[in-house]
From TrEMBL:
GFO/IDH/MocA-like oxidoreductase domain: residues covered: 133-257
Pfam family of the protein (one): GFO_IDH_MocA_C3
Superkingdom of origin: Bacteria
Protein name: Gfo/Idh/MocA family oxidoreductase
Cross-referenced PANTHER family: D-GLUCOSIDE 3-DEHYDROGENASE, UDP-N-ACETYL-2-AMINO-2-DEOXY-D-GLUCURONATE OXIDASE
Segments forming domain Gfo/Idh/MocA-like oxidoreductase N-terminal: 6-118
GO molecular function, one term: nucleotide binding
Length: 386
């Protein structure tokens, strides 16, 4: 394919409207707007100036022949079923994050995609296009810093007032949204953390449900994960911290990475493996280190870099890369199969906090999770169980 990829946007909320605007302004050189779908017919008039077909049913859009690919900017539960319908009808699928609410439905989507290798299946992890994280991914993959020892991410920059949750009946519910901060605000960080550091083997978590907000889902999370081989990590997130913190640390055998506000990074490189330094430094050198008399350059170097903010460009880059993959010119930055990792970790964090025990990710019990989720959906009495 050499012509521009025709994209169908399913769902014209904030995200879908933003993507339509990008395409209308020609910001994605290898992609054009093919059609729009939304269940609210009044939105047809709002976007009539774009001059593309409008559908009220995603199935009609997918089967219309007006699009080569779709992006699903709809409630989380709907991503898998819409992605499946697209792939089964010869249309490339780019699903928004998270790829689904629970792993069983994401696995169904992945299995369909595997039966259609001629089609592209991606997940909209725009943070993977951030040059800061792309550089850190390359650094960690190179092995220069050695094996992972510990990592922690505190990400509490999601402050949401009570009015935010009161806007719609589906917000912050198990049946309508599938959870709280883990499925709505933090999926990008759950993805990046595993993309950079590897997929954990187990998790033990303490979650607070309706801690500082009148909601039933989690508004604070503290999770401790095991990466295997002695490496551990902690993940803290919340929606009630007005000041907010975004700090990622990754400690390895030969250095350390500290990221602040997803925009600046400090990388410390040791002159040797830390254990070798521990064995070989005599106590006089240790004394001089502790008293500030030893030149730290003998042990480590430090590099600092400020990447600034690249928020707007990230979404455009995901769309450009997806179109290039459809055209056979590039590999996907975020293959759809990667989407299950963040969903599984979020599921495992929930399940661990519900059961009060450590939960394995290596052989995650999908049935146990879905049973507990449905128990909470049923208790709400508003939405159908899954």
């Amino acid at each position: 394919m050499t012509e521009k990829v025709r994209l169908g946007i399913i769902g014209l909320g904030a995200e879908g409207g933003m993507y339509a605007d990008f395409l209308a302004k020609g910001m994605v050189p290898n992609m054009t707007l093919g059609a729009i779908c939304d269940i609210l017919p009044e939105k047809q008039d709002r976007f009539a100036a774009l001059g593309v077909p409008f559908f009220a049913d995603h199935r009609e859009l997918i089967e219309s022949g007006t699009v080569d690919a779709v992006v699903t900017t709809v409630p989380h539960y709907l991503h898998p079923e819409m992605g499946i319908h697209a792939l089964e009808n010869g249309v490339h699928a780019l699903v928004e994050k998270p790829a689904g609410v629970y792993t069983a439905q994401v696995r169904d989507l992945i299995e369909v995609a595997e039966r259609h290798p001629e089609l592209q299946f991606g997940v909209f992890f725009n943070q993977r296009t951030n040059p800061l994280y792309k550089d850190l991914k390359a650094l960690l993959d190179s092995g220069e810093l050695g094996a992972l020892r510990h990592t922690s991410w505190t990400i509490t920059t999601w402050w949401r007032p009570q009015g935010y949750y009161d806007q719609s009946d589906w917000r912050a519910t198990w049946g309508g949204e599938g959870g709280g901060v883990l499925v709505n605000q933090a999926p990008h960080q759950l993805d990046l953390w595993q993309w950079l550091c590897g997929v954990p083997t187990s998790v033990f978590a303490k979650c607070a449900y309706g801690f500082k907000r009148d909601i039933v889902v989690e508004d604070e999370v503290n999770a401790l994960v095991d990466f295997g081989d002695g490496a551990t990590g902690s993940f803290i997130t919340a929606t009630h911290d007005l000041d907010g913190t975004d700090r990622l640390e990754i400690l390895c055998d030969r250095g350390k990475i500290v990221v602040e506000n997803s925009s600046s990074v400090r990388i410390t490189r040791l002159t040797d493996d830390e254990q070798a330094l521990s064995r070989n430094l005599d106590m006089d050198a240790v004394r001089r280190l502790f008293t500030g008399q030893l030149d730290r350059a003998e042990l480590m170097t430090t590099e600092e870099k400020d990447y600034g903010s690249v928020w707007g460009a990230q979404h455009v880059e995901v769309l450009r890369n997806f179109a290039a993959a459809v055209q056979g010119e590039e590999e996907l930055l975020a293959p759809g199969a990667d989407g299950i990792h963040g969903v599984r970790l979020a599921n495992a964090i929930h399940l661990s906090s519900w059961l009060g025990e450590e939960v394995s990710l290596a052989d995650f019990d999908e049935d146990a999770y879905l049973t507990e989720l449905n128990r909470r959906i049923a208790a709400e009495g508003t939405f159908p169980t899954r």
